């Protein structure tokens, strides 16, 4: 089982992000940590399977104070055997920690920090509404090295309005120069309830598939040449540093999500917590849980998810997930050089890797 904790707080709201998040405002961070710790104690204890990975995402988990981080991890250590965890990831904003705090991350059991850098170009960072500078991003990686963090991931984004090919190449080369164990390179997507989506709808921004593919293949070429394995559509890793937590999602493993808006899938039941931090705190104290909806996933729903997620990975999918009609369509795609079928598996190749969503639609 995978264990995920959602920390929804951010110093500022980025115009492209659709995850549940907000500035702290009047929210008591102490009360939130108490509620999250309470949910962890109850839900993890009720689980019949021990977590094998732990991931703290957001939002910005690294903006929690040392006191609040200690309180939260004390509660987690009480119910989770950290010695049995294969990976403990914490998402961080480069502007939210110094070397003392980074050493605290390590002391608490964090083995991997995922840095939301996005770009090393000042104008691109301004477009994205990021609060850190390129210099702070470089310094953050160096700080994590000083703190002996075993693994560092750098999150990057491409096809950002105004971002040139030269700028994207320079960002990729700067990321390589910092020698991280892992790099994520995400194509900007325009999600509802974001400022970027509203701008797209007004015609102020544009989404061009050919442009996206060009930037995608540039990242593949540069990072692969730099010694990284392109093991998932948006993810590249040095040998031995694939994201174990995210890999579990892509393989369809059960996961337990804690915190406001968090989603869980356990034994084919998918549930979701309330996406409101104040209500989350109140409901945890009143009811002992924060669930507001749940559904049973039938075999067909799970099959479709296995196809959509598995196609994103270099492992691909089992051919027995496909109908006879889908296998016939897959044969045409293989002839076009977009995928390869060997043995009992199907894997996207070459330009097919940039077309994962439309190909998935063809095969379901």
Quickly count the helices.
13
CA distance, first residue to last residue:
26 Å
- Please state the average pLDDT score: 97
Label the CATH architecture of the largest domain.
Answer: Alpha-Beta Barrel
**What is CATH's topology name of the largest domain?**
TIM Barrel
Query: What percent of residues are in strands?
Result: 15-25%
Q: What integer value in Å does the Rg equal?
A: 21 Å
Molecular structure report:
- By secondary structure, this protein is α/β, with parallel strands linked by helices.
- It folds into 2 domains: 2-250, TIM Barrel (Alpha-Beta Barrel), CATH 3.20.20; 300-363, Arc Repressor Mutant, subunit A.
- It is built from 13 helices and 15 strands.
- It has helices at 29-46, 66-79, 99-108, 122-128, 134-146, 165-177, 195-201, 209-225, 244-250, 277-287, 299-310, 324-335, 356-363; strands at 2-7, 53-58, 87-92, 112-118, 151-158, 182-187, 229-232, 235-237, 255-258, 263-266, 269-273, 291-296, 317-318, 339-342, 345-348.
- A 9-stranded mixed beta sheet has the order 7-8-6-5-4-3-2-1-9, with helices on both faces. The chain has a 3-stranded antiparallel beta sheet with strand order 10-11-12, with no helix packed on it. A 3-stranded antiparallel beta sheet has the order 13-15-14.
- Helix 1 crosses helix 10 and helix 6 (165-177) runs parallel beside helix 8.
- The chain starts with a strand and ends with a helix.
- The mean pLDDT is 97.
């Amino acid at each position: 089982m995978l264990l995920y904790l959602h920390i929804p707080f951010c110093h500022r709201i980025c115009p492209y992000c659709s995850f549940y998040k907000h500035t702290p405002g009047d929210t008591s961070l102490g009360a939130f940590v108490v509620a999250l710790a309470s949910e962890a104690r109850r839900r993890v204890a009720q689980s019949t399977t021990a977590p094998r990975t732990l991931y703290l995402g957001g939002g910005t988990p690294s903006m929690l104070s040392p006191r609040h981080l200690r309180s939260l991890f004390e509660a987690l250590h009480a119910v989770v055997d950290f010695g049995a965890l294969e990976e403990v990831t914490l998402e961080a904003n480069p502007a939210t920690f110094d070397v003392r705090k980074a050493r605290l991350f390590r002391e608490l059991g964090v083995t991997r920090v995922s840095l939301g850098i996005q770009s090393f170009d000042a104008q691109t960072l301004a477009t994205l509404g990021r609060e850190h500078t390129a210099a702070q991003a470089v310094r953050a990686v160096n700080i994590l090295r000083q703190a002996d963090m075993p693994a560092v991931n750098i999150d990057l984004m491409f096809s950002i309005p105004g971002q040139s090919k030269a700028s994207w190449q320079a960002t990729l080369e700067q990321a390589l120069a910092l020698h991280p164990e892992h790099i994520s390179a995400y194509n900007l997507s325009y999600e509802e309830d974001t400022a970027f989506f509203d701008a797209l709808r007004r015609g102020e921004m544009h989404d061009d598939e050919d442009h996206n593919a060009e930037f995608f293949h540039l990242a593949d070429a540069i990072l692969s040449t730099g010694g990284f394995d392109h093991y998932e559509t948006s993810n590249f890793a040095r040998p031995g540093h694939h994201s174990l937590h995210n890999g579990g999602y892509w393989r369809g493993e059960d996961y337990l999500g804690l915190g406001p808006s968090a989603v869980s899938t356990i034994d084919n039941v998918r549930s979701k917590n309330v996406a409101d931090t104040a209500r989350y705190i109140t409901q945890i104290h009143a009811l002992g849980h924060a669930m507001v909806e749940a559904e049973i996933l039938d075999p067909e729903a799970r099959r479709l998810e296995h196809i959509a997620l598995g196609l994103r990975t270099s492992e691909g999918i089992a051919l027995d997930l496909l109908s006879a009609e889908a296998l016939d369509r897959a044969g045409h795609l293989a002839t076009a050089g977009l995928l390869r079928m060997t043995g009992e598996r199907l894997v996207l190749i070459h330009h097919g890797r940039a077309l994962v969503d439309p190909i998935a639609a063809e095969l379901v």
